[in-house]
Structure formats: C-alpha cells, structure tokens
Write a structure and sequence with these properties.
Length: 347
C-alpha cells in the first residue's frame, strides 16, 4: 500500500525520542513516512535514533526554529494526503492511525482530527495539554474535554464519542495536508503555544471542521520539553492567546472582547501576586506590553488570517461555548467541559 500519512516529529534533544519512534513503527497499522525535524543537531538522542531507526528521515535546523518552524518544515516536505504532527514525548497505542484516516476519508470537510490523549505517567487520566479535544468560549479562552483549566478528569469513557471540536492539540495533530498548506501551515510568529489552535481556527474560517477520534489513543508526557511553571511558558500562553483572538475574531466582537481580555490578564497578574506565584506575576503584563508595542505585527497577521476565510468569523459555532468558561470555573465551580457543552456528534 502506498503511504497515506507522513509523521512529522519536531525534536529538541529529548532522550525519549526513541521510545516515541519505537511505538510508531510497532503500532502504526498503515505504512508511514517519518520525518524528524532536529532543532539541536548532533545531540545524543538524534544519533541514537539514527542508529536504531535508519528508515527515518532527519531534517536538521541550523538554528532553533521552535515548534512552529520545525513543524512547518516537516509539513512542507510531506507529499502524502495526510500528516500527523507528533511530539517526541508521546507514545502511540496499537492501531492508532487507521481510525484517523478513516474519519478524514469519510468527509472532505474534515481538515484536522485529534486522538484521545492520555497522560503517559498516569494512563487513566487525560493529558493536560489536549485531553480528548479542545473547545473555546466566547471570550477566546480554550479548554478541553477532560481538562477544564487546572481540573483533570480520569478517563472512564465519558468522551468516547466522535464529536466536532473547535481545536485539536498539536501534540498529536492529524491534518489534511492540502487544507493546511493553503493556509501556510502554522503561524511562525508564535514560536510555540497556541499555534495549533490558531491553525484550527483558520481551517474553520476556510470552511473546514475539526473532529475528535477517541478510538485512536496516544499517551503524552505533558510539559516534557518546556516545564509548566516557568515565566517563559506562562508569557507565551498569555501573549499568544491574545494574538490568536486578535487575528481570528469577527471585528465587531473583537472591539469589546479584546479590551476585556487585556483587563482580565491584569486581574490574572494580580491573582498570581496574591497567591505568591512569583514566576507567573509578570507574564500577563509582559504579554499585554508586547501586544501594545507590536500593532503592525498584529494587523499583518490578522490580514493574512482574514484573507483566507470563506465564512464569516461570527458564523462559527462548532466547539464554541456561548458563555464564559472562566466565570463558570472560578465563580460557579464548574469542573468539567461536559457541564458546559452540548456536544455535536460527528457524522
């Protein structure tokens, strides 16, 4: 059988890479082409991978391109109908690939799919980064099936239906390559964090949809590359979330939502201060300052996003919670996405 899928694995000196590759070659039930994008040339991890898996292709970056740049380089080199962005700290389960391909083959509107992501360290618990697929509230805050902000759920089959999502996690993102290529893949200016959510948003603006495929299972070591409690990670999360909203929201929504988001980030900074979370205190403020001092960057990226859309941003509804997930979580103590969302089963 000819190859249908290219597996693109961005890599930066993680010894766990060989565990990922071992699972891919052992458990992929379709022929695959595997490309590893090496952001740290000649590290011991890549040398070991080259010895143990000579069938992989390695593209070496001359400098650190970040997650977005490495993924784009791999996607651009792919020549198959589908591609999977797969973190090097993941481990795929048996027969993980066919359900993704079969789902995409049923409906040409499907441009991205997400497997069920479980924690590699506590396999009965959803992965923090992506869970069983992502949603977004009206203000542009994201959350997952299986994780609402800091509350993680155990997997008891509660999210085993294939449903429409708003976004799929970049740790294991299945893409219809032609659709992603038309949008120029990931936004390089993000460097890392929120780039896959932004791409899924743009795919929907171009008339496609995103689907959860829970019969495909992948285990993820969340935060392996960049630890969660660092200033840099928190800064990028706040900044890129603001940028993503600016790029993709309908203008009449943006005019009132974006100032509100800036104010809420200031509240977040104050909350971190009161809780003595010193490594987080300045992250939201730094994110706001970056946005306010880079207006040309923001407008350039918004023009690019809007130039590819075929549907109005205000018409999107799949995977969007009409209220505020922040209010529901912090004020009403709602702890699961199932309490917020009425899910729509994918055909």
């Amino acid at each position: 059988m000819s190859q249908l899928v290219t597996i693109v694995i961005p890599h930066f000196n993680a010894e766990i890479l060989c565990d990922c590759l071992e699972s891919v070659f052992a458990h992929s039930d379709l022929p695959v082409r595997v490309i590893v994008i090496d952001d740290h040339p000649d590290a011991p991890s890549i040398q070991r991978a080259r010895r143990e898996f000579p069938q992989i292709e390695i593209l070496r970056n001359e400098r650190n391109l970040g997650f977005s740049g490495s993924c784009n380089r791999g996607l651009d080199a792919a020549r198959t109908p589908y591609a999977v962005l797969l973190n090097d700290d993941t481990r795929v389960a048996p027969n993980w690939l066919s359900p993704l391909v079969e789902t995409a083959e049923r409906d040409p509107r499907i441009a991205a799919c997400q497997p069920k992501l479980l924690s590699a360290t506590t396999p009965d618990t959803f992965d923090y980064g992506g869970g069983a697929g992502g949603y977004m509230d009206r203000l542009g805050y994201t959350f997952c099936r299986g994780r609402l902000f800091d509350h993680l759920e155990r997997d008891s089959g509660q999210y085993d239906r294939s449903v429409y999502l708003f976004w799929a996690c970049g740790s294991a993102l299945f893409l219809r390559l032609e659709a992603a290529r038309r949008l120029d893949f990931l936004d390089l200016d993000y460097f890392m964090h929120h780039e896959e959510i932004d791409l899924c948003w743009r795919l929907q603006l171009s008339g496609h949809c995103i689907v959860a495929v829970p019969s495909s299972v992948i285990y993820h070591h969340s935060g392996f590359t960049l630890p969660p409690d660092t200033f840099r990670k928190n800064y990028l999360n706040h900044r890129n979330s603001l940028v993503m909203a600016f790029k993709n929201m309908a203008l009449h929504h943006l005019l009132w939502i974006w100032p509100l988001r800036l104010a809420l980030d200031l509240v977040a900074s104050l909350t971190f201060l009161l809780n003595r979370q010193w490594h987080k205190v300045l992250a939201p403020i730094a994110a706001i300052l970056w946005c306010l001092t880079h207006p040309h960057n923001l407008w350039r990226r918004r023009r690019h996003s809007q130039s590819h859309r075929s549907v109005h941003p205000a018409s999107l509804h799949l995977g969007i919670y009409a209220g505020s997930a922040v209010f529901q979580y912090f004020m009403r103590r709602v702890r699961t996405s199932s309490q917020l969302m009425r899910e729509e089963t994918a055909a």
